[in-house]
Amino acid sequence: MERVDLPLAKLTLAQKLNLIETLWHDIIKDDKALASPTWHEEVLQDRQKALETGKAAARDWQEAKGSR
Description:
It is flat and about 45 Å long. Helix content is 51%, strand content 0%. The protein has a domain at 39-68. It is built from three helices and no strands.
């Protein structure tokens, strides 16, 4: 596989976040090839329980990105 070099030091934080989002959306197109480790399910269940019991809160992703 050919290495891709990007001028990351020249990118703004917003550009870097956009790049991450773009890469992630491309990776998950083939979600069958992306296997999660078994411990992920436990973490997700713990986080869901924390949300349900009020021990954690969630925000909209766009809101979270803009809260710098």
